[in-house]
Design a protein that fits this description.
This protein has 228 residues and is mainly alpha-helical. It contains nine helices and no strands. The longest helix has 21 residues, at 2-22. Residues 221-228 have low confidence and may be disordered.
Length: 228
């Protein structure tokens, strides 16, 4: 009994540690977002022109910096919570591929906005948020894993209303291109990495069970003949 309790406590401790580790990178990124906005406020500067300006050489730097830059604290706060939670979900459930997915999602979304966005300064982490939500949702469906499918349903419940953001002019002064292209990038990465990371469990009958079942069938057949 004590051995079973120790195993349970060890399992709980493992999942607590895994959850804590999964929060580190999303937490650091959100901290950097708030640090950038604080620097803007303290030194009375505007870093908007470090965002993405499509098809402009000056706007290329935004692929790297734009997710860290926000219009105001309201914009920053609205992006901080979903980015932290979705990032934590990614690193907890897809820990084996989370770094690769984050890297490609970050740069694919930014590059796509630079190529296809309208002529304006695009800033904020919303494209990354849409990419994370899209990846988590479609990965759970594609993998046919009941736990990950449950996560997909949770994403729909928490952030399903975000889908309207991929359409033009639904949200004022928002980069719907970042939303749409981040969403598409998430789908692409869900397909590319479908064979990596957690997979649906495959259930097989143990050999002993199979042999015992076959033996019982053989023993039953003569009994049926005798009844006839």
């Amino acid at each position: 009994m004590s051995g079973q309790l120790s195993d349970e406590s060890a399992g709980k401790e493992f999942f607590r540690r895994k959850l804590g580790i999964s929060m580190i990178i999303p937490g650091v990124f959100v901290f950097l977002m708030w640090l950038v906005k604080s620097v803007e406020l303290m030194f009375d500067i505007d870093l908007t022109r470090m965002g993405i300006y499509p098809q402009s050489v000056n706007g290329l730097q935004g692929i790297l910096f734009s997710p860290l830059i926000h219009k105001d604290f309201g914009h920053l706060f609205n992006n901080s919570l979903p980015l932290f939670f979705l990032g934590t979900f990614l690193f907890y459930f897809y820990s084996e591929i989370a770094i690769k997915v984050s890297f490609w999602l970050y740069f694919l979304t930014g590059a796509a906005v630079w190529i296809a966005g309208r002529e304006a300064w695009h800033i904020g982490a919303s494209g990354l948020i849409y990419g994370l939500a899209s990846f988590l949702f479609f990965s759970g469906i594609i993998r046919k894993h009941f736990r990950l499918a449950g996560l997909s349903l949770l994403i729909v419940f928490l952030y399903g209303s975000m889908v309207w953001g991929i359409f033009p002019d639904v949200y004022r002064d928002a980069s719907w291109e970042s939303h749409l292209l981040g969403f598409v990038a998430g789908i692409v990465l869900a397909v590319i990495y479908r064979k990596q990371g957690p997979q649906a469990p495959v259930y097989e009958w143990p050999e002993d069970d199979v042999s015992s079942r076959e033996g019982s069938d053989e023993n039953e057949e003569p009994r049926q003949d005798r009844e006839r």
